[in-house]
Design brief:
The chain is of the alpha/beta class. Helix content is about 30%, strand content about 15%. It has 32 helices and 43 strands. Helix 4 (about 95-110) links the parallel strand 3 (about 80-90) and strand 4 (about 115-120). Helix 12 packs parallel to helix 14 (about 320-325), helix 17 runs parallel beside helix 19 and helix 29 (about 1120-1125) runs antiparallel to helix 31 (about 1155-1175). About 35% of the residues are buried. InterPro entries: Apaf_helical, Disease_R_plants, Leu-rich_rpt, Leu-rich_rpt_3, Leu-rich_rpt_typical-subtyp, LRR_dom_sf, NB-ARC, P-loop_NTPase. It holds the Pfam family LRR_3. Keywords: Leucine-rich repeat, Membrane, Repeat, Transmembrane, Transmembrane helix. This is TIR domain-containing protein.
């Protein structure tokens, strides 16, 4: 955090230290924003407020636009109920009495309640606030007349707050970086406000979380590490993993938490689960299809470039773990994987032995805390007898968190007599299993709640809450109130709208069912494969069975008789599922005569018949799942009207030709027919309530109802419907439609104009619609459209109305050959524009109007230059220009640009001089491989970064230039100061006398390394990086460590790269330096033996120490000026040496000596101008001597002559390639 003033450090430390005493449990807001609205509301403030909310920091922002002079009592309370106050001092802040009242209250809370206060000096001088000068002094003087009694407290609050460590917007550019620093610091401070062993979520045992975090070793960013959490069921493994995940997730680029892996793999294949993990990590749908045995190369590359956090909960099979996670080198450096398991062997087998955390029972004071939080809603029991009763309850739980929670909830609000009665009951079963203790909560439920609990435990754990409620309601249960009671009893939870239940509770529910009767056919619910097969094959009848769930992967192929279900009169739930394969396991060679009409839920994977039984009329059926069935049609004869059916999934039923008119299912909401490759048409003649219709990969579908009455439809998918040539005009009546997928509709020739009436449409995909040559002219009427994807479509021109799409965020037209672009105006929200491989010859000149653009992808096009207006794209961070082989000119680019890819831009010869300077002053990752060497030479000649980019308070500021050169030689260049031809490390002391010591102010470090693996080395060195670990020791003993590296350009050649380190010479004077070189190949395991030779060259401003000693600049020497002039020429070389040994320097592309002499001329100019500056700078007399003035004028005259000569060379075409625009 940038300090606002030199006097702020003490205030800062006191504020931070005192924050530990804040009790965050009773605070309503995380942060309170104090600001002057007229100054910053619509700009800086709105971005800061949005960034805080994105970080899940609950922030209060006063929306009152008409502030008077008196602050409201409610607002004062809001300040009191905030953990952090952020005060934004702007130019007119102190002129507002309202703001000053806020500030006085904030300062009072900081003093009395130890509230954290963080000032931001926005476009104002902190000194003006601290000393009440400038505008702040004027404001205080103005208030003295009207608010005499308040001015003293206001002044005290202004000066006191201004002396707290904060941020000065003038020192931190751009604003996005300032906001990022503020938000990160607020989040860090909030994370330290929970010192107790519990938090507001009822979590006890924060020390266990910290032990896991110590095993993760987050400060190590080089390795990939897996940590196991091992312990018995119910001991808290998942809770700890969840808490760790939430605490550290923001430190990673991508995160993924997979709960209940063992259970999930019972529902689907490992391949499906792995694909979902990759989709979550890579952010969105994965269009790069892997196979079960091999990952797509794009996925591998993407994972290697990310620092990821993955949590796999409840893994019971090491093979599954290995398959889901893969090799550790699959992920980027610093990635972490957390695995919870009941089986320690699982963790040992996957080489996680060193990093296993065993979760033990909670210790006595923790169990008392956890139990009290649920039984008394506080951290300890009431004094007296209740403490004794609580200790007796705790003794029965044996420190198992789940048992403590459930018993605490069951006893909450009950009197002493009820507690004693409960304890007497418990005393009769001192050695019973924990599940029997949990049973006591179940016994307190009514009949309706028990049925709901047993259904969830046996069938619906992990399912969608709303869908389960619909099914349970149709079964005659009152799901809304019943589920609410189960939540209150801690018998289940809801996470992400899914029903969750602990394994112990689930097993308890199944045990309750098993105790109903010794004979399985007389129980209410069946899930054991052997029991179910015996009942169905022997036709014993099962009048008591209400629900069946059979995992088909656990049985052999079985034949059933036509009358197998005739004696299941009460059957309401039937689920035959096969998570592992699509093999038909249940055969009906003689057909099926009967299915119970009482069914509410029918789920039958790989149903083996061509239709359902003709007499099957399930009037109460809510969900029908028949994925991968052999169905040709649902019913051979007249289809019944299913008035309660809400969900139908017939996906991958390859033989399905038709389905009944959808008017038969008036309440149908979700229809999944994906992969029904024989389906020809869909028909409907009634208004429906459908929300999702998925017809993807219905490759024979050629007809869709001309009149669509699905007024609630949200998502419609036709992707892969290669026979669909037209869409009905009634499509425009789908007023709620948000997603329309037309990917690979290769016969589609046009979109109906009515599509422009879809005011809710957010996502439109016409990828690979190769015969679709145009979009409706009124496309701009799609006022909600956020993403338009037209990759490899036949689109030749974008309509001008596209500029009316005010909400458009992503526009992708990759591979649209010959695409013509309209002027780009009005796309205020567009943050990603991708036009790769379109053959575009000209980019619209008003590109700069795209103020929200963060990513611009233009590779593979034919334009020669980029509009200079691109500088106005103030949020652009990524620019991709690779393979633009006609590109000749790069203008000045936005200062916020972080990634520039111009690989293979073979004609690129010209760059703006301001671009070069911007390149010096930013952390820009550039890839200019296969570009003109003239560009590379210019970028080598960069000078020192400007002062505003250097942090005066820090020990050092490090700038990286991730650009490398390849020299066609195998020796370290002679000009390198320090070399090593043997070994992988290099160290030396910097104690040489002035003026040639590097002990003060390092400016640049050049590195070179020769990568030479052995001939028989079979390792894959594609995308290998060469890295140097730098370690500097100061005279004070302090140590500074950093890394610098580059991509390997060519094996057996010398790679050159450089970094800049600006050291604070008053705080950090280098005494010793050491460098360790190694390579990081695809395996992500550093190897040093392949680095054969290397060198380090230090370029320092050794005159700064003399400047510090003598303020009148006497220490500047003529030799120093000459050396500095040399350094500001070609960075890696000196011209005389280059002439004698041209093979050692990257000048081999300069064939004509004329051009090199022009560069010598520029060097001469540089030296002469530097000499003039030196003479002026060293003139410490009050009056210059006449001889000195004459000499300076003579030098200026010579420089002008040389400039004139230089211009004449340019006119004759001798220096064109070196022109700096």
């Amino acid at each position: 955090m940038a300090a606002s003033s030199s006097s702020s450090s003490s205030s800062s430390s006191s504020s931070s230290s005192s924050s530990s005493s804040i009790n965050p449990q009773w605070k309503k807001y995380d942060a309170f924003l104090s600001f002057r609205g007229a100054d910053i509301r619509d700009g800086f403030l709105s971005h800061l407020y949005e960034a805080l909310n994105r970080k899940q920091i609950c922030t209060f922002k006063d929306e009152n636009l008409d502030r008077g002079e008196e602050i409201s009592p409610a607002l004062l309370k809001t300040i009191e109920h905030s953990l952090v106050s952020i005060v934004i001092f702007s130019e007119d802040y102190a002129f507002s009495p309202w703001c000053l009242d806020e500030l006085a209250k904030i300062y009072e809370c900081q003093e009395t309640k130890r509230q954290i206060v963080l000032p931001v000096f926005y476009q104002v001088d902190p000194t003006d606030v601290q000393e009440l000068t400038g505008r702040f002094g004027d404001a205080v003087a103005q208030h003295k007349e009207k608010f005499k009694e308040k001015v003293e407290s206001w002044s005290r609050a202004l000066t006191g707050t201004a002396n707290i460590s904060g941020w000065n917007s003038k020192n931190i550019k751009p604003e996005s970086k300032l906001i990022e620093e503020i938000v990160n610091d607020v989040a860090k401070k909030l994370n330290h406000l929970f010192p107790s062993d519990y938090d507001e979520d009822g979590f006890v045992g924060i020390g266990r979380v910290k032990e896991v975090e110590s095993l993760l070793c987050l400060e190590s960013e080089e390795d990939v590490r897996m940590v196991g959490i091992w312990g018995m069921g119910g001991i808290g493994k998942t809770t700890i993993a969840d808490k760790v995940f939430n605490r550290i997730a923001n430190k990673f680029e991508s995160q993924c938490f997979v709960a209940n892996v063992r259970e999930e793999l019972g529902k689907r294949t490992p391949f499906q689960l792995r694909s979902e993990i990759h989709e979550r990590i890579l952010g969105g749908e994965n269009f790069y299809v892997s196979t079960p045995n091999a990952l797509h190369p794009f996925i591998k590359r993407s994972l290697r470039n990310r620092r990821v956090l993955i949590v796999l909960d409840d893994v019971d099979d090491p093979l599954h773990l290995t398959y889901l996670v893969g090799r550790w080198d699959l992920y980027g450096p610093g990635s972490r994987i957390i695995v919870t398991s009941r089986d320690k062997q699982v963790l040992k087998i996957v080489n996680c032995k060193k990093y296993i955390y065993e979760v033990e029972k909670l210790v006595s004071y923790q169990t008392l805390q956890l139990f009290s939080l649920h039984a008394f809603k506080q951290t300890h029991p009431p004094n007296g007898y209740m403490t004794q009763l609580s200790n007796r309850v705790i003794s029965y739980t044996r420190g198992v968190p789940l048992a403590l929670k459930v018993l605490g909830c069951s006893l909450y609000g009950k009197g002493v007599k009820e507690w004693e009665s409960e304890l007497k009951t418990l005393e009769t079963i001192p050695n019973m299993d924990i599940q029997d203790i949990l049973r006591r909560s179940y016994d307190g439920l009514d009949h309706n709640e028990k049925n709901i609990f047993l259904d969830i435990a046996c069938f619906f754990k992990g399912e969608d809450k709303e869908r389960v409620k619909s099914i349970l309601d149709c079964c005659g249960f009152y799901a809304e109130i019943g589920i609410s009671r189960l939540l209150d009893k801690s018998l289940m939870t809801i996470s992400g709208e899914k029903l969750k239940m602990h394994d112990l509770l689930q097993q308890m529910g199944k045990n309750i069912v098993c105790k109903e009767n010794k004979e399985p056919r007389k129980r209410s619910r069946l899930w054991n494969a052997e029991d179910i097969c015996e009942i169905l094959t022997k036709e014993k009848g099962a009048d008591s069975v209400e629900a069946i769930s059979l995992d088909l992967s656990k049985i052999r192929s079985t034949e059933l008789r036509p009358s197998a279900f005739e004696k299941f009169d009460k059957l309401r739930l039937l689920k035959f599922y096969n998570p592992c394969c699509e093999e038909i396991k249940l055969h009906l060679p003689k057909g099926l005569k009967f299915l119970p009409n009482e069914l509410r839920f029918l789920y039958w994977d790989q149903y083996p018949l061509k239709s359902l039984p003709s007499k099957f009329c399930p009037e109460n059926l809510v969900e029908l799942h028949m994925r991968g069935s052999q169905l040709k049609q649902l019913w051979n004869d007249y289809a019944p009207c299913l008035k309660k059916l809400k969900f139908m999934d017939l996906s991958k039923s390859e033989y399905l030709i038709r389905i009944p008119d959808l008017s038969k299912f008036p309440k149908l909401e979700d229809i999944f027919l994906r992969g029904c490759t024989s389906l020809i048409k869909i028909s409907s003649s009634a208004k429906l309530h459908g929300k999702i219709v998925d017809l993807g990969n219905c490759r024979k579908l050629c007809h869709f109802p001309s009149c669509i009455y699905m007024t609630n439809l949200v998502s419609l998918s036709f992707d892969g419907c290669s026979k669909l040539a037209h869409l009905p005009s009634s499509l425009g009546e789908l007023s709620c439609l948000e997603n329309l997928n037309l990917n690979e509709c290769s016969k589609l020739v046009s979109l109906p104009n009515s599509i422009c009436n879809l005011k809710s449409l957010k996502w439109l995909d016409i990828t690979d619609c190769v015969n679709l040559y145009g979009l409706p002219e009124n496309l701009g009427y799609l006022e909600s459209l956020e993403e338009l994807i037209a990759t490899r479509s036949g689109i030749k021109e974008l309509p001008s109305s596209i500029n009316q799409l005010k909400e458009l965020k992503i526009l992708t037209c990759d591979g649209c050959d010959g695409l013509i672009l309209p002027p780009l105006t009005g796309l205020a929200c567009l943050w990603e524009l991708s036009l790769q491989g379109c053959g575009i010859s000209e980019i619209p000149s008003n590109l700069g109007s795209l103020g929200s653009l963060t990513g611009l992808y233009l590779s593979g096009n034919n334009f020669r230059s980029i509009p200079t207006s691109i500088k106005q794209c103030s949020k652009l961070t990524t620019l991709v220009l690779s393979d633009c082989k006609r590109l000749e000119f790069l203008p000045e680019l936005p200062s916020c640009l972080a990634n520039l890819d111009a690989v293979n831009c073979t004609s690129l010869d010209f760059v703006s001089s301001s671009f070069i300077q911007g390149y010096v002053n930013s952390c820009l990752a550039m890839n200019l491989s296969k570009c003109s060497e003239l560009i590379l030479l210019k970028l080598q000649s960069m000078g020192q970064p400007e002062e505003q980019y250097l942090d005066k308070k820090a020990d050092a500021t490090i700038f990286y230039w991730r650009h490398s050169l390849c020299i066609p030689q195998s020796e370290v260049p002679e000009w390198m100061m320090y070399k090593n031809d043997n070994g992988s490390s290099l160290s030396f002391s910097l104690t040489a006398p002035q003026p040639h010591s590097h002990a003060t102010h390092l400016i640049k470090i050049a590195f070179c390394a020769l990568f030479t693996p052995k001939v028989n080395d079979s390792r894959n060195f594609y995308r290998t990086r060469i890295v140097c670990k730098c370690r500097f020791i100061a005279e004070s003993g302090d140590i500074l460590k950093t890394l610098s590296g580059c991509r390997l350009v060519n094996m057996h050649r010398m790679s050159l790269w450089h970094s800049t380190i600006h050291l604070n010479s008053k705080k950090f004077r280098i005494k010793e330096a050491s460098f360790q070189f190694y390579a990081i190949p695809n395996s992500l395991i550093p190897i040093s033996e392949v680095i054969l030779k290397y060198g380090v060259h230090l370029i320092s401003d050794y005159n700064l120490e003399e400047d510090d000693k003598d303020g009148d600049s006497k220490g500047l020497s003529l030799a120093g000026v000459y050396d500095r002039a040399m350094k500001k020429g070609l960075f890696f070389t000196q011209f005389p040496a280059a002439e004698e040994h041209p093979e050692q320097y990257p000048l081999q592309g300069l064939k004509e000596r004329q051009e090199l002499k022009w560069f010598d001329l520029n060097f001469s100019l540089n030296f002469l101008f530097s000499l003039v500056i030196f003479l002026v700078a060293t003139s410490h007399q009050t009056k210059a001597q006449p001889t000195q003035m004459v000499f300076v004028l003579m030098l200026i005259h010579v420089c002008l002559k040389l400039l004139s000569f230089n211009s004449s060379l340019s006119l004759h075409g001798m220096a064109t390639k070196f022109s700096v625009v």
